[in-house]
Amino acid sequence: MITVTPAASEHMRHLIAESGGPEVKGIRISVMAGGCSGFSYNLDFEDDPELDDNVFGDNPRVFVDDASMGYIQGLTLDYEGGLNGTGLKFDNPKATTTCGCGTSFSV
Asked: Between the N and C ends of the chain, which has fewer C-beta atoms within 10 Å?
């Protein structure tokens, strides 16, 4: 399960609207090898889910492939605004350490 807070949903709807693509139906969260802590989160606009995707939420939908799901099961995606640290925040219960930037982690 992935939890998307209302603030994150609103921010992602804004990003999708700015992307200019009416075919964009959601945002994909994937995990990539790399980053200063070993793994990093990757976000992309997505038109439709793939066959092996887990789909969360409604507006927007969030797509996560099975391989990435193993690293982020239980993740809460939030959005924080302000002068310090504006952006999407990943609260991953599987992460044993995180980078100061908040987008890199290890398990």
From this structure: N
Quick one: tokens of 59?
Answer: 């507006």
Using a pLDDT cut of 90, give the percent of the chain over it. 41
Going by pLDDT thresholds of 50, 70 and 90, the confidence category of residue 105 is: low
C-alpha span between 43 and 102 (Å, rounded): 14
Taking CA 7 as the corner, what is the angle to CA 59 and CA 55, rounded to the nearest 5 degrees? 35
Q: What is the pTM of this model?
A: 0.82
* Residues contacting 7, CB < 8 A, separation 6+: 78, 79, 80
Domains and CATH numbers, the chain: 3-96 (2.60.300.12)
